[in-house]
Amino acid sequence: MTRWIEIGALDDIPRLGSRLVRTPGGNIAVFRTESDEVFALDDRCPHKGGPLSQGIVHNKRVTCPLHNFVIELASGQAVAPDEGCTHTHPAKVENGIVWLSMRQAAAVS
Amino acid sequence: MLDKVIKQKLVVIGNGMAGIRTVEALLERAPDLYDITVFGSEPYGNYNRILLSPVLAGEKTVDDIMLNTADWYEDNNITLRKGETISMIDRRTCEVVTEAGERVPYDRLLVATGSNPIMLPLPGKELPGVIGFRDIYDVDRMIKASTDYRNAVVIGGGLLGLEAANGLMKRGMNVTVVHLLDTLMERQLDPVAGGLLRKSLEERGMVFKMPAQTQAILGEDRVTGVRFGDGTELPADLVVMAVGIRPNFELAKKAGLYCERGIVVSDTMQTYDGRIYAVGECVQHRRQTYGLVAPLFDQAKVCANHLAMKGFATYDGSVTSTKLKVTGIDLFSAGDFAPGPDKEEIVLQDANRGVYKRIILKDKKIVGAVLYGDTIDGPWYFQHLRDGTDVSHMRERLVFGAANLGEGGVSGQNSVAAMSDETEICGCNGVCKGAIVKAISEKKLFTLDDVRAHTKASSSCGSCTGLVEQMLAFTLGGDYSAAPKVKPLCKCTDHSHDDVRRVIIEQQLKTIPAVMRFMEWKTLNGCHSCRPALNYYLLATWPGEYRDDQQSRFINERVHANIQKDGTYSVVPRMWGGVTTPSELRAIADVAEKFNIPTVKVTGGQRIDLLGVKKEDLPAVWADLNDAGMVSGHAYAKGLRTVKTCVGSEWCRFGTQDSTGLGVKLEKFMWGSWTPAKVKLGVSGCPRNCAEATCKDVGVVCVDSGYEIHFAGAAGLHIKGTEFLTKVETEDDCLEVIVALTQLYREEGWYLERMYKWCDRVGLEQIRKRVVDDITNRKALFARFAYSQQFAQTDPWAERASRGVDRNEFAPLAELELA
């Protein structure tokens, strides 16, 4: 069963921006798109481990600040021709509150 | 509910490079606009016709040169009807008719029927063994002939003829090339280069008969020989006619479309019937026809744009370059090199080394280039040719190439062709030559952007761009499609930096979404390239009005520190003119200990760098530094960085002026300003130049009688001494000129374009005129800079350390105990 955890208000994440959630298993980056969708990914670029939460968000993608890998927020996949995948976590917004599911332990890193 | 929209029908006649490139570009812009059907006469998919020569020479296989697989057509819902020929276009009913009589309707039609080889009307031209050189079928026949027969005659000493001859020779045939004129490749080469080429081909065993006119092809059941105008004869079992190509426009002409030497098209690639477009070798545009790939790609882009109903792109012709694809022979030719009264030539000839270079200039610009033996600088000359660069300032060294001008970058000295596969090309990303060549040929890459995306080479600092372009040219030959003349700002738009800056002012656009809407951005929120650029342009254009968009800032400028490889940050407080005090040093030492900062390092810009600071510690670190009177050094900014000084007349026995004081004054006036790229200053107290001012963006060299102002230097990716701008007598004048210069750069530079690149682009004289000579303009520039500083000179550290700006940025949203 999915266990949802309340992590904060949607308004505390900037549009086209991201905030960090610290967990014992590693950092999770929570992104907010222009249309107020939220996505949660491990805060590690599959390329060289760059903190994705610090990247520029555009549409439903984020560009890693270290070497410009572009990651799809929905799938965690690097945009071709780059290769690699970052672990994603279910996230949702209800009444302005952001929820994260810890279905699996975060990054095993 | 009708959820299925009836799409318009696009029919493409011709499954060649031009037609399919257009379709690819169209799918990028408007993936769902059309139902697309492609007709191709040849029984193959789309292949790279230009690489037929290497196939003939046995250096590549047919599979190597296929461009689009059956899957590609399927994945993109394109109906490919290969092996089917269109026999008629019925414009009245908007249908095409196949040879089998089937009628297929269209809303838009794209004609890309290419060209046919010219077959000379000689007696005997129908004999078996007489062929053109145009498609896979011809190559197959030539390969077969080379196993069964001995003697080949190639008619035509142009690019195609020589490549065919080379291929046949490699397959073991005795080859004679017959050419009407006395210079080989006379359309691309001058007599000297033509002679060098002939000599090296002869050394490989090729035989030439030239000038010679072919009169008849001899034989009864099959070709047996060739007779010439002078009565002599040559035995031949195979005759290849490679005298040129003729645009294939029969079908269009029959349909009543206006044709001259090709299908006549407008700047939007439309024929006289607005529903019908044409691209590639079959068209005639502004009286020109083209037989090379790069122009076809330019046309494809424009045509796709129009088909996608974006409607703003126009094609205004292409300048082309040629490279002979004969392994081991280096030859490059571009532009117009016919002699003329208004043209000047620079020639370098070294017979021993087999090197010949001829650069043709007109109005201080390169208009043509012929290179033989050493073609490493071909792409570089071609770039300047297309950009119309004023080359007068580098004229005396021009013929020696980019490396000699310091433009070759770190490893630009070596010819790519001579490098081993293990040679590292891209030092930033560790990419070797072999990997790049492999990616180009296996993944069928055509452009610099393709190579960057697939290999990462040239995608970081860019200093190996020239080498990568050479590798493209080298691997693909004439196939290489260099970057377009006017570079779009990024992939989200077709507009250039200049267009964007102009429109922002003309249309009074004041937010990023407004710019994107007005200029029809292709993406929803842009990307990591265009958003920071737009943010800067708006900030520089509307000081005090535009609200800086933090989410469009690269992380360093958003958190006012430099991100490091492990996600920590570095912090550099400002040290005005490189001068510090015991109390500042004490405060830095205290901060380093208090926050366990692992590395403290002296920078090249005369300040101190604290490395390895955790993001959440940043505000507290700044608060402590602020308390000691220090502010942000903007070491992370596309803005004013350091002003490096020497001690000057205050201490130095050679100092002529107070260089330290002037440096501090400049820094205090200019700090906090945002610029297109970083700006570093230097002030030296005498010509011994201890502050190394003459390789800075702006440098001052003090002399006894005043201040020499230099600018446009670089000491990073490129090493370049500064240009002398002017000399002034007082510190105030010095400040005014430097500030005005910086403001002009702020207003005209492209985002991420360093000052020296900007100077190269717009020209030193232009800049001097507006900053030095026109005093009214100088004062106006100065005033605009001063105005914008009112809004820029707030210490970003203090705002965040004690005034709570961007508090969310530095703290996690939540801390979870349990996973």
Descriptive report:
- The complex is a heterodimer of chains A (109) and B (819).
- By secondary structure, chain A is an all-beta fold.
- Chain A has no helices and 10 strands.
- In chain A, a hairpin with a 2-residue loop joins strand 2 and strand 3.
- Residues 105-109 of chain A have low confidence and may be disordered.
- In chain B, helix 1 (17-29) runs parallel beside helix 9, helix 12 crosses helix 14 and helix 20 (618-627) crosses helix 26 (796-802).
- Strand 2 (17-23) of chain A pairs parallel with strand 41 (814-815) of chain B.
Terminal CA distance of chain B reads 46 Å
User: How many distinct beta strands of chain B?
Assistant: 41
What percent of the residues of chain B sit in helical stretches (DSSP H or I)?
25-40%
Report the uncertain regions of chain B.
407-414
Multimerization state: heterodimer
The geometry of chain A reads as: globular
Mean pLDDT of chain B: 89
Specify the number of helices of chain A.
Answer: 0
Instruction: Give helix and strand order of chain A, one letter per element, not per position.
Output: EEEEEEEEEE
Radius of gyration of chain A: 13 Å
Radius of gyration of chain B: 31 Å
Structural class of chain B: alpha/beta
Strand content of chain A: 35-45%
What is the total tally of β strands of chain A? 10
Helical amount of chain A: under 10%
Task: Give a concise summary.
Chain A is mainly beta and 109 residues long. Chain A contains no helices and ten strands. The model of chain A is unreliable at 105-109 (pLDDT under 50).
